[in-house]
Structure formats: structure tokens, C-alpha cells
């Protein structure tokens, strides 16, 4: 089964989720649109892009106002069939970094991902009008998109809906080598037997008066 968050699939699907003739004005526009595309691929249904309006049905295309607060801030509000909760995803610019926050509104299930914007985007690519140059160039390479999706799954998705079921989706496992026990199969060296020092018969005899120092 192919990866549902495969970079090529996401990049191909992204233009279908934004208004026609859209221009991605900044790297943050690109990241926000890409993350929304990932949420859409995982069957999260968009219901709003702000706190003022909420649609009763899923929005198949982002409204024209989706990036009106960019590049500083973006908000996406979702529902999902595997949960009764409402999920909010925000993307914020913080200097040279992009901070991604998510929460299930009716609970305390909050999560966060902080990335260096330049590690995942090419600033010179923006502003970018869709359907002109290949969009993947705005994210440096497919490998960079793969890295971002791995972090996004681990830090955001798995916290919002643990064990999410979707064909082509697997949760990213956490790994750590800190304080891990050694797995070496080499036998430990056994200390060689050291015989006790030899003691002369004279040393074992009682000390006499003449043997004592004056």
C-alpha cells in the first residue's frame, strides 16, 4: 500500500484544495497549504478557517480568505469521522521559524511542532502562482517534504487521534537511544586470578624483643 502522505501525491493534490488562480505569497503560505493538504488526505474535513464562521458541511476548497492573515498566522478547523471532537490547526510565523499548533477543542489534547522555515522551503520560490513552476521546488525537495510529514505525523496527528485508521497511513514510531542498555554480544573479560603475595616463614613468627626497633 502506497504512503498516503507521499510527497508527489500531496503536491499533485494541493492545487485542487485552494481557490483557482491562487498565488502562494510566502513560504508560510506554502507550508500552511501543504499541511492542510495532508489533513485532507487523512480525511479531516475542513469546516472553517477562522473563529467567526463555521460551515455545517465540509469545505472542499479553501475559501478566498484562508491566507488573509498570512504570513503571520493561519487557522484551519476540522472534524473527523473517527472522533466527535473539533480540531484546530494553526500555523504561525515566529521569526525564522514556523510553529504548528493543534488542539482538540473539547479536550486537552494539544500538540506542537516547531521547525526552521528555511529547512523546508525555498524563499526565492515565492511568491508563486500555482500551475506555473513545479510546486515541489518551493519545498526544496521531495525528501524535505517526507521529513516534514514524518514530524507532522509524530508530533501532531498521533496526538490528536492516536491510532488513526486510514489506508496508506502508519503512525511514526518514537525511537530513543538515551540511556539504552548495551546490546553488545561480546563476552565481558574475566579478571585473571592474581595469587596472593608470598610470605616468608620469618614474617609469620612472633616479633621478639630483639626484633623490635630501639
TrEMBL record:
Coiled coil, from the record: none
Molecular-function GO terms, alphabetical: endopeptidase inhibitor activity; proteasome binding
Ranges annotated as biased composition (Low complexity): 171-185
Any Pfam family: PI31_Prot_N
Disordered: region residues: 171-214
Family (UniProt): Belongs to the proteasome inhibitor PI31 family.
Protein name: PI31 proteasome regulator N-terminal domain-containing protein
A cellular component annotation (GO) from this entry: proteasome complex
Keywords of this entry: Proteasome
GO biological process, any: proteasome-mediated ubiquitin-dependent protein catabolic process
Boundaries of every PI31 proteasome regulator N-terminal domain copy: 22-167
Top-level taxonomy: Eukaryota, Fungi, Dikarya, Basidiomycota, Agaricomycotina
InterPro entries reported in the protein's UniProt record: PI31-like, PI31_Prot_N
Amino acid at each position: 500500500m502506497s504512503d498516503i502522505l507521499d510527497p508527489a501525491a500531496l503536491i499533485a493534490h494541493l492545487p485542487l484544495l485552494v481557490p483557482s488562480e491562487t498565488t502562494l505569497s510566502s513560504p508560510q503560505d506554502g507550508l500552511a497549504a501543504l499541511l492542510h493538504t495532508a489533513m485532507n488526505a487523512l480525511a479531516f474535513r475542513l469546516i472553517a478557517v477562522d473563529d467567526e464562521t463555521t460551515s455545517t458541511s465540509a469545505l472542499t476548497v479553501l475559501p478566498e480568505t484562508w491566507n488573509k492573515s498570512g504570513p503571520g498566522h493561519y487557522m484551519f478547523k476540522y472534524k473527523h469521522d473517527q472522533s466527535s471532537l473539533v480540531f484546530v490547526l494553526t500555523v504561525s510565523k515566529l521569526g525564522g521559524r514556523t510553529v504548528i499548533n493543534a488542539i482538540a477543542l473539547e479536550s486537552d489534547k494539544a500538540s506542537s511542532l516547531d521547525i526552521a522555515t528555511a529547512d523546508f522551503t525555498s524563499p526565492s520560490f515565492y511568491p508563486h502562482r500555482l500551475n506555473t513552476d513545479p510546486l515541489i521546488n518551493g519545498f526544496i525537495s521531495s525528501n524535505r517534504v517526507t521529513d516534514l510529514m514524518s514530524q507532522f505525523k509524530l508530533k501532531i496527528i498521533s496526538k490528536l487521534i492516536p491510532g488513526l485508521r486510514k489506508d496508506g497511513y502508519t503512525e511514526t514510531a518514537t525511537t530513543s537511544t538515551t540511556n539504552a542498555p548495551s546490546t553488545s554480544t561480546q563476552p565481558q573479560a574475566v579478571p585473571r586470578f592474581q595469587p596472593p603475595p608470598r610470605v616468608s616463614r620469618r614474617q609469620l613468627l612472633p616479633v621478639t624483643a630483639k626484633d623490635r626497633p630501639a
